[in-house]
Specification:
heterotrimer, A mainly alpha (about 300), B mainly alpha (about 290), C alpha/beta (about 425), B: about 290 residues, mainly alpha, C: D-Maltodextrin-Binding Protein, domain 2, 2 domains, four-stranded mixed beta sheet, 15 strands
């Protein structure tokens, strides 16, 4: 297309050709320095004896060998796998369902949309307390339902080391599924109605309409949702601290809390950097093939 | 209802509409429940909370916790409430959101409509950047800000949020513009329209829904950020979240839960306002005529 | 000569090199005292300084018992914009002094005679390499038991003097349908138990060897297994609903007569007083049975960040104000802790406070004043947290006492 424009205009060739790249270059430069530069820095730190501040004294693989002797790291990885997969799947399913329901010419759509979205607005510093109370068997849901007469009702996951991670999923889904709904809704609103009308005239059922035409067109929205959710899952720190503080015991430790704790609370920045490096490599192993396949198909 | 030509053309019968409304209402309950706990407890005296019954309605209704959180609660040495910190947050959030949204839209436009060799790799690089753990960024970023003299300043804080927000805003716009018919852009080029003219006249007018998503995301994240806000601000530019955190996390003092909840809801009001105002642009087809290729 | 460039490593030095640009005539103070009582106590300090025309720039960052503030501090120092003075605990002071970032307060200490009035156990943290680097504000002690007097009277219980008496008292409370031990399941709260139990099992020598000197033999000894067994015994007196509960909610259980006892530091007193309870009448405070003669402490101190030219006049004024008898009394009266100097008249403190001050002075005189492991005054942050991991995992039943002892030895080894 640039070809066409150039033929018509002639002059200012270089600028016209370079303008898009110029527009993109500040973002690229920022990311190269402040993301990739820092990743290299972190990688380097993971081989040093850094404690309270960064240090340049190399210690080889010591931080990595220590890292894998720490029990909490195993727990953190397992929890991330459980939490991350449940969280992403439930949020996507719920978000899509709500978006489709809300796209049916609903009265008061704006009002309902705001209700679904508002949890995003609240900082988990305090919402965590509300959830903690709600989930606490002594004062929350269990106590209320029992007081209504259902004496045997039990909901004490947050106090149970094996189940506590699922309460984090419940609260996390509550917080972000509304936003995922908004992303899908934006995608739905970007779809051309003409195609749908044509298919309807051909007698396609509503279900077929969504499965065959609408949902495939939402692929880019799915990708956005996946990236956002994966990012939230990996970085969820506030949520875990506010809800369980990593407990009972160390049963809800996740990599983000682990990294923070070793880098800042425990003054073992070297081990913190090693855990960050491993996390980044694991993320790369999952995200790069996915991003690659998504982008390739379109080009 | 027919005047509101926003939703899908898919038709549903009366019976299924009843089911849809019921489902939507049930989910409203799920989302509102924690807010109920917060609102109810923010309207009680502390003694009622300490006595238990955290789900119950107040026996004595009081607005005192709200007044306290706003103007008299202890944040530091001064009992100022959250009021003075609102402005600090707004000064930081508004430019950061505006710049990152505009940059994201331009990036998305370039990456979908002015493609060049290697653009996919650049997008991949921007995208993967979203995943860097902030814990590891803190120390080198502090050093960088110190070197360029932005340590402890609002522009420094805006810059940090811009850097780590750009990946997402680019992602949203790129994936949205991908659905946008390229033929329209091509036709405009043939007519001699330039890079920015096409962006302003053709792309922007139909970007409403995704701009809402992007603004909501950026506003929420930056407004609620604690780690950067606490680390890169100065005593006179501490944002709202740091103040809220000081209110809530006081170490060995008495925990005034009612004031905490009031403060939390208050701190979320600007974000809610953005959701409501921006939500208006969630309407499809502002430029529907020109989109149909 | 400052140690900026003689710090541990070249990079650390580079990171610190631009420190020292704060405005003259004002002090910027990074702290995490944001509750009403604490802040009004700090106001005493602020007013004192403003009397000398020194402005106070407030930089509060609460959360995690100071860990948030320490994270912020690292960013501030790295960016070359350190606060003038910073509230710090125990080993953090030593760590920053090692990096050469703290100002030398020797002249002021000399003038004020700090060497004579501050106990040696505190000086271990206030000084580094023979130099005063911090001014201590208060001393909290952590091996306290808080009891609901009405329950004790009702069950005819006396203040328990030994471990066995304490277990009997707990059992009596449990049998009577009360929660015997109010507890919040957070690692630091369990570590607070641990302080007292280690002392009660092995006395101060064992505490010194295992918690402070980190002697592998002491850590892996049978006595340590006994410590874990007793932790398991305490666990059996806690209600089912304990995990994640904040300490003040546990205190509320004692206040509301739902629970008989709580093991918590002296800051719990504020909760009782705030609820209108009277020490000695409504509630009792006594040392963890078996550790009556010992005091495990933690101490908040203010460290001064070097401003290039050594100590500034403002920092000197701040340090002097902190160590003044008036401030020490006024602050500790509201904070629930005791003054950090041993030469004051404590008559203004309440019953529990006076008792604590006497205990503190006696423990200092007899060498029984020991840094609290649970609160970062026995060993560095890395070791402390490694111990937390084991203690809390054992307390939550993830493994038995024998395994816990093995885990403790390994964890300390990895983190040293």
């Amino acid at each position: 297309m640039a070809q066409v424009a150039r033929n018509r205009r002639g002059g200012n060739d270089w600028l016209r050709e370079a303008l898009p790249k110029l527009v993109l270059s500040p973002s690229l430069a920022m990311v190269l320095i402040f993301v990739y530069g820092f990743i290299i820095f972190t990688f380097y730190l993971s081989f040093t004896d850094s404690r309270i501040l960064p240090s340049f004294d190399l210690v080889g693989w010591e931080n990595y060998s220590k890292l894998f002797r720490i029990r909490a790291w195993d727990t953190a990885i397992t929890n991330l796998l459980i939490f991350g997969s449940l969280y992403i799947v439930i949020c996507c399913a719920l978000g899509l369902a709500l978006a489709i329901l809300l796209d049916q010419k609903i009265r008061a759509e704006g009002f309902i949309r705001t209700i679904y979205l508002y949890p995003m607005a609240l900082s988990f510093i305090v919402t965590g307390t509300a959830w903690k109370w709600f989930l606490d068997p002594g004062i929350g849901l269990q106590a209320v339902i029992r007081s209504w007469g259902w004496e045997s009702f039990t909901f004490d996951w947050i106090k149970d080391g094996d189940m506590a991670i699922y309460t984090i999923v419940i609260a996390a889904v509550w917080q972000t599924s509304g936003f995922v709904m908004a992303m899908f809704l934006a995608g739905l609103r970007g779809i051309d109605n003409e195609v749908l009308k044509a298919a309807q005239i051909d007698g396609a059922s509503n279900f077929a309409l969504y499965r065959r035409i609408v949902i495939p067109q939402l692929r880019p929205a799915f990708m956005s949702a996946f990236v956002v959710l994966a990012h939230m899952a990996i970085k969820s720190y506030d949520l875990v601290i506010a809800l369980t503080g990593g407990g009972p015991g160390t049963s809800t430790e996740v990599p983000a809390t682990f990294m923070y704790s070793y880098t800042f609370t425990r003054n073992q920045m070297g081990i913190g950097a090693a855990s960050a490096t491993i996390m980044l490599m694991a993320i790369a192993a999952i995200m790069v093939p996915y991003i690659y396949s998504e982008l390739r198909e379109k080009s | 209802m027919s005047s509101n030509a926003t939703a899908t053309v898919v038709r549903t019968g009366a019976g299924s509409r009843f089911v849809i409304y019921t489902l939507l209402a049930l989910f409203c309950l799920y989302y509102l429940l924690p807010l109920y706990v917060m609102v109810v407890n923010s309207l009680k005296p502390l003694s009622e909370i300490q006595a238990g019954g955290m789900m119950a309605l107040p026996d004595v209704w009081t607005l005192a916790p709200w007044k306290s959180a706003w103007s008299t609660a202890q944040i530091g040495v001064e009992a100022t409430g959250l009021r003075p910190f609102f402005w600090n947050s707004i000064v930081m959030v508004v430019p950061a959101v505006a710049i990152s949204t505009v940059l994201g839209a331009l990036n998305g436009y370039v990456l979908t409509k002015w493609r060049f060799r290697g653009d996919t790799i650049i997008f991949g690089l921007l995208l993967f950047g979203c995943f860097i753990p902030f814990q590891m960024v803190l120390i080198p970023m502090a050093r960088m800000l110190g070197l360029v003299g932005l340590a402890g300043t609002v522009p420094g804080l805006v810059f940090v949020h811009l850097v780590y927000g750009i990946g997402f805003s680019t992602l949203y716009f790129r994936n949205y513009y991908q659905q946008f018919p390229t033929e329209l852009v091509r036709a405009a080029m043939i007519d001699g329209a330039g890079f920015f003219t096409i962006f302003r006249r053709i792309m922007l007018p139909s970007s409403g829904p995704i701009a809402v998503v992007c603004v909501i995301w950026q506003f929420t994240n930056i407004w609620n950020d604690f780690l950067f806000g606490a680390s890169f601000s100065d005593f006179d530019s501490q944002p709202m979240t740091v103040a809220l955190n000081n209110l809530v996390q006081s170490s060995t003092g008495v925990k005034e839960y009612n004031v905490h909840f009031a403060g939390a809801i208050m701190a979320a009001l600007p974000t809610l306002l953005v959701y409501i105002v921006a939500g208006r642009y969630f309407v499809r087809g502002l430029m529907a005529g020109s989109v149909k290729g | 000569m400052h140690k900026y460039f003689g710090g541990k490593t070249a990079l650390a030095a580079a990171f610190l090199a631009t420190a020292g640009m704060a405005q003259a005539a004002d002090v910027e103070v990074l702290h995490w005292w944001t509750s009403g009582g604490e802040a009004s106590a700090l106001n005493v300090l602020k007013d004192d300084l403003s009397g000398q025309d020194i402005g106070w720039q407030d930089m509060p960052v609460a959360g995690g018992g100071g860990t948030q503030a320490m994270t912020v501090l690292r960013a501030r120092v790295t960016s070359g914009n350190p606060p003038t003075a910073v509230q710090m605990l125990g080993f953090d002071i030593t760590d920053w002094a090692k990096e050469g970032a703290l100002a030398n307060l020797n002249d002021i200490a000399e003038e004020g005679g700090w060497n004579d009035v501050v106990p040696a156990a505190l000086q271990k943290f206030s000084t580094y390499d023979g130099q005063w680097v911090a001014a201590p504000v208060n001393v909290h002690s952590t091996n306290w038991v808080w009891a609901n007097k009405a329950i004790m009277d009702e069950l005819g219980l006396e203040e328990p003097q030994t471990w066995n008496e304490f277990v009997a008292a707990l059992q009596a409370a449990k049998d009577a349908g009360y929660v015997a031990l109010a507890h919040g399941g957070q690692a630091w709260q369990e570590a607070t138990f641990f302080d007292g139990v280690v002392l009660a099992v092995g006395g101060p020598e064992f505490y010194q060897a295992s918690m402070i000197d980190l002697d592998a033999e002491a850590l892996g000894s049978d006595q340590m297994k006994e410590v874990f067994d007793r932790m398991a015994t305490l666990r059996s007196f806690v209600d089912d609903n304990f995990s994640g509960r904040d300490w003040n909610l546990a205190t509320a259980m004692v206040i509301n007569k739902e629970a008989a006892f709580q093991l918590m530091g002296d800051w719990a007193k504020g909760e009782f007083l705030n609820a209108g309870k009277v020490p000695g009448e409504d509630f009792l405070c006594f040392r963890f049975p078996g550790s009556q003669d010992q005091v495990t402490f933690n101490s908040d101190q203010f460290a001064m960040f070097s401003q290039g030219e050594g100590v500034s006049d403002e920092q000197a004024a701040l340090a002097n104000a902190i160590m003044s008898p008036e401030f020490q009394i006024a602050f500790n009266k509201v904070k629930g802790s005791v003054p950090a100097r041993t030469d004051l008249d404590a008559s203004e403190l309440d019953a529990c406070g006076q008792r604590a001050y006497e205990d503190f002075k006696a423990a200092d005189a007899s060498g029984n004043l020991l840094g609290s492991m649970g609160h970062g005054h026995a060993n560095p942050a890395s070791v402390k947290n490694a111990m937390y991991d084991v203690i809390t995992a054992h307390f939550n039943g993830e493994f038995d006492s024998a395994t816990a002892v093995e885990e403790l030895v390994t964890a300390v080894d990895i983190s040293k």
